[in-house]
Design goal:
Elements lengths: L10 E11 L4 E11 L3 E5 L6 H8 L7 E6 L6 H4 L2 E4 L11 H9 L7 H10 L13 H13 L5 E5 L7 H14 L6 E5 L3 H4 L5 E6 L2 E7 H8 L3 H9 L1
Parallel strand pairs: 3-7, 3-8, 5-6, 6-7
Antiparallel strand pairs: 1-2, 1-4, 8-9
Helix pairs in contact: 4-5, 5-6
Length: about 240
């Protein structure tokens, strides 16, 4: 059986004609998208544009109504979930655990967990390992969630609104940590955010979603050159 860590798929994610329909909502409407290895990709769009649904699909948590998706060269299944790190927007941490207990608990689920890396990031994020999660500020909880995602040695990292509702200091620390820990030769990060101005320097490529469709997909450099302005200004022009 092929090892997903050593598989030489240049395309980490391939989506063709993807639709996702719920009872009352058509979340994705014909997504064609190829995500290559070694990129940090910004997934941008207003609320309801399909960002979270798309990330969950890449993570193997939801399945398309129609169309095809390949992650690391195969259709998403239980095995793929072991090779994708997914940070949801919702707070999924147990408040009664300490910071160290939380990381130890999460590490039990994954054979690719990197203990030394987790300890290093814990220090960099200035988190007290003995503090209860329920006593952490929202920004500190966001840092802890990010440590949990980045401590895994996986080819695909999916981050859903990691800056949501947190202070500028925590946002800056999180951005520095992502750039510091990004393994550009073997990893891809797809990051959904509304904090375009601060996160813009991270992005190699940018996807603008609108009403479940890809409105724009290009390199950040090409977009800034074409529009003659920052990604934040492009956001304002696209979504008006």
């Amino acid at each position: 059986m092929e090892n997903l860590h050593t598989a030489s798929h240049e395309n980490v994610v391939e989506l063709k004609g993807i639709h996702k329909k719920y009872i009352l909502k058509h979340a994705l409407r014909g997504i064609d998208l190829t995500v290559q290895r070694g990129r940090i990709i910004g997934l941008l769009g207003p609320n309801g544009s399909g960002k979270s649904t798309l990330l969950k699909m890449m993570a193997g948590l939801v399945y398309p109504t129609s169309g095809s998706i390949l992650v690391n060269g195969r259709e998403p299944d239980v095995r793929n979930k072991q090779h994708v790190a997914y940070l949801p927007e919702i707070d999924h941490l147990y408040g009664w655990m300490t910071v160290k207990q939380t990381l130890a608990y999460i590490s039990n689920f994954y054979t690719d967990w990197q203990e030394e890396k987790a300890a290093s990031m814990l220090a960099a994020m200035e988190l007290d390992g003995n503090q209860k999660v329920r006593n952490l500020s929202k920004g500190m909880r966001a840092r802890l969630k990010l440590i949990a995602a980045l401590s895994r040695n996986v080819p695909l990292v999916l981050l859903d609104e990691p800056f949501s509702g947190i202070d500028p200091s925590s946002r800056a620390k999180i951005i520095r940590l992502i750039l510091q820990e990004f393994q550009s030769d073997e990893q891809t990060i797809v990051l959904s955010t509304h904090s375009v101005n601060e996160s813009e320097p991270m992005f190699d490529e940018v996807i603008f979603l609108q009403q479940g469709r890809v409105r724009i997909f290009d390199t950040a450099e090409n977009l800034r050159s074409e529009y003659g302005c920052s990604l934040e200004k492009i956001w304002e022009k696209v979504y008006g």
